[in-house]
Structure formats: C-alpha cells, structure tokens
C-alpha cells in the first residue's frame, strides 16, 4: 500500500524558500516534521543541485507522511510567492522533483502512456528533463510539475505511488542527499561572498569520447593562487587529476568582468576534482586576504 510504504521524495528549492521552510532557529521545519511525522532534510547553504542555484530538500517517511509534509512546504512557499506578487494569477507555479534516471521509465510508461494518464488525472503539466541535458556524473533527472497546489500534490502522489512499486527505488530512499564534488557552483563560503566573489560559469560541456571541458571564471588577481610559484600548483593539479588546464592570456577577460577564463578538460571525474581543487585554492587565497 503506497500510503504506508517507506518512501522519499526530493525536489529543488530556492535559497529564499529554504529559509522560510527552515524558519527562525529551525522552528518551522520542526513544526512540519511534528505535524507530518516525516523527516525533512535540506542540503546545506550553497550545496546546490549541479547546474542550478537551488538547494535540495528531501522528505522521507511513509507515503502519507511524505505527502502531508509536501503539502505544508509547498503551501508555505506558494503563500509567500502570492504575498510577493499580490493579485497575480499564479497557476503556473512549479515543483521540480529529482528522480533517479533508472526509475524514470516507470513514470513514463510504454509509449508515454503512464505520464499521459497522470497529466489527465491531476490536471498538472508534467515534463521530464531530457537525458541529453544530463550533467556528467549525475544520474538523476528533473521532473517539472506545473499547476495549482492541488494539481501538483495530486501529480506527486501519482508519481510516488508508481515509484514505490519500482524495486530500484527502495535503494534511493536511503541514499545521502549530497552530490559529492558535483556542485558546479556555490563552492564559495559566505565570507568569501563579501569579498571578490569567485564566479563560476556553468559548464561549457564539450563531450568527446571520454572528455568533458568546463570553463570557470577566476578573478585576475587570484590567478597566482592557482598557478603557484613556477607553475607548481597547476602542474600538480593537472598530474593528480589527469586533466589539461588552460588559462586565458593576460587581459583576455570574460566580457564585462576582470575574470580570466580557466578551462579544464579531461574525464568528467577528473574535471570535477580539478575544479574543486582550483576553487579551493582561490577560496583560501581570498580568506587569507580577508583575515589580514
């Protein structure tokens, strides 16, 4: 029975909405957990779903608890949006579920029959992100549900019922929320944000047989921090990760900024690790300036 089976859903939530769901000193989220009986977890501040600036919220419990918690959270977010946009028609509100690719087939159904049935039953619009848009190393797809609060809840209930039937889904219920090393943006700490922010351009992914390349933006005055004396740091990172790192020439900035382009090319795993190490070097250099 779907309402009593252990289940879990994850969806994307903006930083602002996350703040209102947590509430002062965590009061709102504690209240929602008490009212629903579900466990509610959020990814930490600046831990975003790859390729977005949204945090991840996970609700787990039995089906009925999960849907109650979802109702409370979406209701709260919708109320706040309505207060910000007084009098506007907000029938186009969206919820974006994160669903493992290997269980998406269950939602789509043969020739799209299942998803079509869900759309007719709920009245919501349901769309899956295409597999071509997937980010290297991330095996999840985004299911965007658009409609009124009731339509969204009905659509999620239908999807959840279907997912619970899939044996692969039970493994997903207990996996941790983070995407280790896959956060493409937001590796900045709030302290650094006060200072010269490290802006990361989202991936210019040129996928060859096994290669990916991304370009990140590094403030000109921080280039020394990633190159090191005599190129020592950059050589070490290239060797350790098996990647090639190319820095744009002096004065060759990303349009409208004083940021140089740093391109990392290699396997998806190598690129991610190198990117993490580079951003960490920049962050340390900023923090030491800030503490001086």
From TrEMBL:
<feature type="domain" description="K Homology">
    <location>
        <begin position="5"/>
        <end position="78"/>
    </location>
</feature>
<dbReference type="Pfam" id="PF00013">
    <property type="entry name" value="KH_1"/>
</dbReference>
<keyword id="KW-0677">Repeat</keyword>
<feature type="domain" description="K Homology">
    <location>
        <begin position="210"/>
        <end position="283"/>
    </location>
</feature>
<dbReference type="InterPro" id="IPR004087">
    <property type="entry name" value="KH_dom"/>
</dbReference>
<keyword id="KW-0694">RNA-binding</keyword>
<dbReference type="InterPro" id="IPR036612">
    <property type="entry name" value="KH_dom_type_1_sf"/>
</dbReference>
<feature type="domain" description="K Homology">
    <location>
        <begin position="91"/>
        <end position="164"/>
    </location>
</feature>
<protein>
    <recommendedName>
        <fullName>K Homology domain-containing protein</fullName>
    </recommendedName>
</protein>
<dbReference type="InterPro" id="IPR004088">
    <property type="entry name" value="KH_dom_type_1"/>
</dbReference>
